[in-house]
Design a protein that fits this description.
Elements: H1 2-10, E1 16-18, E2 20-24, E3 27-28, E4 37-44, E5 47-55, E6 60-63, H2 65-68, E7 73-78, E8 91-96, E9 100-102, E10 116-119, E11 149-154, E12 170-175, H3 179-185, E13 194-197, E14 204-209, E15 213-218, E16 221-232, E17 242-246, H4 251-258
Length: 263
């Protein structure tokens, strides 16, 4: 999408760029495995882009600011695993610009506060294919998740050689890195408002996965801990950590803008 080029130009020295979407070397998801995952077909003037997002209620989607800050409208794919087909149970919902909420302090030049919300025009009916992820509890005691396994999913390219987003939903499960280790790769860009995932073995998010979920599973609960933000512009199989907006840093903002909270 447009911001991919802009960010790469602004931060050529760091060769970082917002991810327009993919999971490299991931596994294919089965129907209903990630019921909180949505796809976003974004209309920007006469062009478009593809991103991911997460249901956090029956009416609200969480995604990345760099996906939606120039959007005229968004079509939300709900209950989908195959985006080129109309599957049983799949819904495609139009969201107008007035229902797109981009963080007011989003700064594309520094890629900070990379978070936005979409308000759906009607409440969804949850089922085996459609269900919200759970926000971390708003209690002020947040895990760093360092060393814990987390799952990222999306329809991005499945390798650096691919030239189109994946027609099927894919996912990777990899450990969360220490901020100090991540900062070795992304000097000065790793703050307490982001979270990093290891991409060892080329298993990574990439272009097209932007805004999509990073989830830490505890028992049967899918806690949404991140939204795909940026990675290496030179390729997603190079071993640079994937960086996500840290959801625990924005729980107050999410509650203020949408009313969604986990007490």
């Amino acid at each position: 999408m447009k911001l991919f080029v802009t960010f790469a130009a602004l931060l050529a020295a760091a060769v970082a760029a917002p991810m327009d979407g993919r999971i490299t070397h991931g596994d294919v998801a089965h129907v209903g495995q990630f019921p909180y995952q949505v796809g976003l077909s974004i209309a920007i003037g006469s062009s478009g882009a593809w991103c991911g997002g997460s249901l956090i209620s029956d009416r609200v989607v969480l995604t990345a600011a760099h996906c939606t800050d120039s959007a005229d409208s968004v079509t939300v794919y709900v209950g989908a695993t195959k985006i080129k087909e109309e599957e049983p149970g799949q819904q495609r919902i139009h969201v107008e610009k007035k229902n797109i909420i981009v963080h007011e302090d989003w700064d594309p030049s520094k890629v900070v506060n990379d978070i936005s919300l979409l308000k759906l025009p009607a409440r969804l009916e949850f089922n085996d294919r459609v269900r919200a992820a759970t926000l971390p509890k708003k209690n002020g005691h947040y895990s760093t998740y360092e060393g814990e396994e987390a799952i990222a999913s999306g329809w991005g390219l499945d390798s650096d050689k691919a030239d189109a987003v994946s027609p099927v939903l894919r996912y990777v499960e990899m450990p969360i890195m220490k901020p100090s280790t991540c900062n070795v790769y992304w000097a000065g860009m790793i703050t307490d408002k982001v979270i990093c995932m290891s991409t060892k073995g080329g298993k990574s998010t990439c272009n097209g996965d932007s805004g999509g979920p990073l989830v830490h599973k505890e028992g049967d609960i899918n806690y949404l801990i991140g939204a795909t933000s940026f990675g290496l512009a030179l390729g997603c199989e190079k071993g640079y950590p994937a960086v996500f907006t840290r959801v625990t840093a924005y729980l107050d903002w999410i509650e203020e803008k949408s009313g969604v909270v986990n007490n």
